[in-house]
Amino acid sequence: MKHKIKTVIILAGVTTATIHVLNKIQNSLCTVKNYLGSSYNNYYEWRFGKIRYSKKGNGSPIVLVHDLTCGSSNYEHHCLFESLSKTNEVYSLDLLGYGLSDKPNMTYTNYLYVQLLIDFIKNIVGRKTDIIATGDATPIVVMAGHNDPEVIDKMIFINPQSLYNLNQIPSKQTKALKFLIEIPIIGTFVYNIFSTKSIFEKSFYNEYFFNPAEAQERDIATYLEASHLPNKSDSGAAKYVFASYIGKYMNTNIVHALKEINHSIYIIAGEEEKDVHTTVENYEYYNNAIESVFIPNTRHLPHLESPEDVLKQIEVFLS
């Protein structure tokens, strides 16, 4: 009996060590090219960690806020950043837990990001700003505008999260999955299964882009890199924000805030995005001042798939 127990302990130790090595190898391979490095990188010392942001241009300020999906970072807006900086002072940040920002082991919520956005605008931008946000980041901007109306001027939402999905709160199943992913070594291994190159390729080809041929290898590689960037001594730190995301901890009901905010709001939607017409109709139902436009032959990331068309709509609205 003692011999069997000893054998099990040895096998468990060897298996754990092997998984740990595999995790290290995958993280190294995914981040070796440093796609997210930029000469425009700056850091905001926020209370929960350092926030990476890029700043360029002069004029009326615009803040770009990326989506909350796995692998998201300010790279998502790189086409908008370069073009808009010719006429505006543009800020593009990595939210806490994403990209080159710090990735503390904590539960990430909508309220956390609302506070981050308000603090960033007050302490870094220093004046009322327009904001462009994608997908799941839309509720952050809505709640920030509701909580502190003086920090945000105009809002542009690119394929905003559906109001129905935002009502989904953590369940026993999602809480258990969050717990599993946050476990050292084993949890990192599970997270790595969710963040392989093939997974990102499927996302770009089937969800993010309408025309798969428009998806560039660098786009996929950068998302892959962002999903594996370490945090100081914790090589698997990117998993914590994903655990909160998949656990539904970032969701919040924004209907009340959407009804009450008095900002100019413009929705830019990919014509081929799933259920996007229903989503836009719901937003317009609760705030009839919202305007919208659909970009043909695009899905979730029209600002990567067809940036020229998106820029034309942004310029018309902000002018």
Number of helices: 14
Q: Strands of the largest sheet, in order across it?
A: 1-2-4-3-5-6-7-8
Question: What is the overall silhouette?
Answer: globular
Class based on secondary structure composition and strand pairing: alpha/beta
Order of helices and strands: HEEEHEHEHEHHHHHHHEHEHH
Helix content: 40-55%
Which terms would index this structure?
319 residues; alpha/beta; 14 helices; globular; disordered N terminus
What is this entry, summarized?
The protein is built from 14 helices and eight strands.
Question: What would you note in describing this structure?
Answer:
- This protein is an alpha/beta fold and 319 residues long.
- Helices cover 47% and strands 15% of the residues.
- It has 14 helices and eight strands.
- It has helices at residues 2-31, 78-84, 110-125, 138-147, 163-166, 172-182, 186-194, 197-208, 217-226, 238-246, 255-260, 276-286, 302-305, 307-318, and strands spanning 41-46, 49-56, 61-65, 89-93, 129-134, 152-158, 265-270, 291-295.
- Strands 1-2-4-3-5-6-7-8 form an eight-stranded mixed sheet, sandwiched between helices.
- Strand 7 (265-270), helix 12 (276-286) and strand 8 (291-295) form a beta-alpha-beta unit.
- It is globular.
- The termini are far apart.
